[in-house]
Amino acid sequence: MTDESGRGGEAEPLKDGEAEGGVTKEKSCAGKLGLSHLTGWRTAAFLLSIFLCLAVIFAFSFILPCPVRPQYVSTWNRTVPDAATFDFLAVEDANEDKVLDVFFIYRDADASRNTCLNADLSVPCLVLTAVDGTNGKSLWKRALSAEFDWVECGVKGLGHKGSGCLVAHADNLTAVDKKTGQIMWQHSRSTLMHGNLPLISVPDLNSDGKEDFAVLSYNPDALSFTPTPTELVFFSGKSGDQLGSRVNVDVNGVFAHLHFKTASGASYLLLLTDSGLYAVSLGRLAALAKPGFESALKKEKSWEELSDIHTGFISLYQSGFLKRVLAVQGSNPPSLLIQTDSSVSLLQTDKLKTAWTTNTSTLLSEPTFGQFDKDGIPDIMIEEDAGNQTKRVMVLSGHSGVVLWEVSLLFWPPSPRPASVLTLNTYSVFMLWGQTNQTSQMQSSFLLHPRYSKLLLERRKSSQNIVSFKATLLERGRHASYLVLTGPDGRRHTDDSEPVILTKRKIKKDVEESEVYGVTADELISQDAEDSVREAFHRLRFSEIQ
Ligand SMILES: *[C@@H]1O[C@H](CO)[C@@H](O)[C@H](O)[C@H]1NC(C)=O
Ligand SMILES: *[C@@H]1O[C@H](CO)[C@@H](O)[C@H](O)[C@H]1NC(C)=O
Ligand SMILES: *[C@@H]1O[C@H](CO)[C@@H](O)[C@H](O)[C@H]1NC(C)=O
Ligand SMILES: *[C@@H]1O[C@H](CO)[C@@H](O)[C@H](O)[C@H]1NC(C)=O
Ligand SMILES: *[C@@H]1O[C@H](CO)[C@@H](O)[C@H](O)[C@H]1NC(C)=O
Q1: Which residue in 13, 19, 87, 264 has the most C-beta neighbors within 10 A?
Q2: How many CB atoms lie within 10 A of CB 36?
């Protein structure tokens, strides 16, 4: 009854009081008053909602400007004549346009003469620079005294906002603001000559409102005649001042390290030594630097139960042939990939158990993680040296370590390591380098789509000395690109007589400019298969920045 009269009122609002009213009058006079009241309210609500809709439409079309999506050039390059560069590429948003910008460093005598002299530096000097990710234009340049040791960008606590770059060069440690390129602080690193990357970021230890960091000092060259103690030194991100005292990390034969966070967020320092892999809680080391520092750093209970009572060290993996340890990107619970002379293994860090081990020959490059199969567990791309200037590129299942895919390619060192970019379809596309023609010196990049894995898209390039390579998204969920830095390698060459070129290319742009290459050599490639793999690449939608 209520429903019906309500509907009638909306359909024929004028009739309500007259004809219909006459018939229903006697049925219920009391109910009638309440109902017409309700109808009035409905009409008012209806008009109000129309008004609100129009107001919103009006506001969005005329008053509020649409969010401007940054326009980008699909391919750009930046050339520095007569310079030398280093294996370093970082992407960070420097100019706050939501597109990541590119940081690289070079040594230059000529083109940057004024840049060096203006900064009161002798020539040649180092130039750390940021270029706009959208078009390759220079955002800032920072001249620094040579010699170059290392640089890391994205270091939290440095700079006015967010993060900055830390450069170890000549006798100094210099913090550079990522937005302006200004020097935030500069300190002598005389006590830290053996400081090694990666930096260990820690929460704000000295309560100055900025994150802090630590540097681990050791001599990775095991044959050195003057043994260097392994020491950890904490620094203030804001001022660069040393925090607390130096901590002696009492373990022999350290040649590499990494900072690892367990599933519960506990921070551990992992040490690769000539007898195996060890972990020690960062909180324990921080407390040795200054009592109280440990309060911001959690410990993992199950790990601590296994630690040595006196030293706090936890033995994670014993091997005299350890080469490299990587935290598996995107694995849950977090796991570690352990590479030795002749194998790779996956260590599950929650149970501290080895899930699988796969035998390999010498690996040519650092393994790359990406989703190849459909199980959601990150898979691993490795490059094995097969002798005779041939490499075998393989994808190992992250679940079982079995070989899911492989291809043999020619290569001439140095050949950049593979890269991957995650798509929205939960698989990654992979990019690798190699040669397919024995007689030509052309270097090719290859794109691999896991759902069309019998084919690769090959793009031939003239042979260049690639010093650094990175594939990444430059914006959230879009703008999948790769960066190639070519030129003389500053660590090997002393004469800087060739151009250093940074090139950015959109990955999808390579699809049109490439040829199809069959993974198994004698396979016939139909036009249909070729079209469908190109089409699959064009359809790709990318996931978040990893
Ligand atoms: C750099 O870009 C310009 C135009 O954008 C192009 O003409 C030139 O060939 C490019 N250089 C290299 C080395 O790719
Ligand atoms: C090191 O830093 C100090 C302090 O800023 C500065 O005076 C000195 O010139 C720097 N030395 C070099 C070689 O850059
Ligand atoms: C891997 O290498 C080890 C030691 O050389 C050997 O015992 C084992 O059988 C190998 N496994 C496979 C699957 O080849
Ligand atoms: C290396 O490759 C060349 C050309 O394919 C071949 O002639 C030669 O026999 C190979 N050598 C070895 C040791 O496999
Ligand atoms: C390999 O390169 C040489 C020299 O550039 C060329 O003559 C030859 O046709 C190429 N071979 C193939 C299979 O592409």
Answers
A1: 87
A2: 15
Q: Residue 460 C-alpha to ligand 5 middle, in angstroms? A: 12
153-171 confidence digits (pLDDT tens): 999 999 777 789 999 999 9
List pLDDT tens digits, range 108-124. 877 778 888 888 898 88
Residue nearest to atom 14 of ligand 2 (CA): 145
Any ligand 2 atom below 6 A from CB of 182? no
Give the Cβ contact number of residue 38 at 10 Å.
Answer: 14
Nearest CA among 147, 177, 149 for reference residue 240: 177
Check residues 74 and 495 and name the one with the higher pLDDT.
74
Question: What is the pTM assigned to this prediction?
Answer: 0.85
CA distances from 375 to 371, 382, 520 (A): 8, 19, 25
Contact of 129 with 138, CB cutoff 8 Å = yes
The number of the ligand 2 atom at minimal distance from the alpha carbon of 170 is 13
Minimal-distance CA residue to ligand 5 atom 11: 437
User: Would you mind telling me the total number of residues written for the chain in this entry?
Assistant: 546
Question: Tokens 């999808």, residue?
Answer: 508
Contact (Cβ atoms closer than 8 angstroms) between residue 194 and residue 246 = no
Long-range contacts of 261-267 (CB under 8 A, 24+ apart): 261/334, 262/300, 262/303, 262/334, 262/349, 262/350, 263/332, 263/333, 263/334, 263/349, 263/350, 264/298, 264/300, 265/298, 266/297, 266/298, 266/299, 266/300, 266/303, 267/202, 267/297, 267/298
Q: Supply 193's token pair.
A: 């000559």
User: For residue 359, how far is its CA from the centre of ligand 3 (angstroms)?
Assistant: 6
CB 236 within 8 A of CB 246: no
- Is the dihedral angle over the CA atoms 139, 145, 151, 152 positive or is it negative? negative
Which residue's CA is the nearest one to ligand 1's atom 14?
77
CB count, 10 Å around CB of 467? 26
Ligand 1: residues with CB < 6 A are 77, 501, 503
